[in-house]
Amino acid sequence: MSIYTRYGDQGYTRLVGGGRAKKNAPRVQAYGSIDTLNSHAGVAVSQLSKEDPVRKELLQVQQWIFDCGGDFATPDEKRPYKIEAEMVQWLEEKIDEYWSKTPELKQFILPGGVPAAATLHVCRCVAREAERNAVALLELEEAVNPEALKFLNRLSDYFFALARWVNLQAEEPDVCYQNSAPVFKGKKKPRA
Known about the structure:
Elements: E1 12-14, E2 20-22, H1 26-46, H2 53-72, H3 85-101, H4 115-139, H5 146-169
Antiparallel strand pairs: 1-2
Helix pairs in contact: 1-2, 1-4, 2-5, 3-5, 4-5
EC number: 2.5.1.17
Keywords: ATP-binding, Cobalamin biosynthesis, Nucleotide-binding, Transferase
GO molecular function: corrinoid adenosyltransferase activity
């Protein structure tokens, strides 16, 4: 079996269910950016020791990111969607856990720190890009798993909170953006 099909030579790709789309179609842009996100998450995993519990957690998140990409590659729910509300809830619980254990933020911070945390900040940005691409599908009134859209939204917050946690564990302090106005004013501390 060959890995190449030559189907893309004319600028098309196949969707789940057998349909086809141009490689620059909004649906393909959406699941393509989710694939990019998963690759960046893989880099973060590679930067963590095998004993680090965050590594195992991120491997699970990668499985869900793959499912999320599959949901966006599936027009008109040609197969049951895989991202469910429980996954979004899990992300929210992890966000709250990490956020409650890191120092309070009063200013924006610069992305960076130890390599794994810096990569998690990249993941945050790519998750936002994937979310923007997913919203483009909504504007075209195409079928989208609403839980997958929520999942993408929570992923960026998860990666931000986790990046700060990873830096804290490495005793690497956040670096504040010098020209930042006060942020997170009036925001309630997440539930513990």
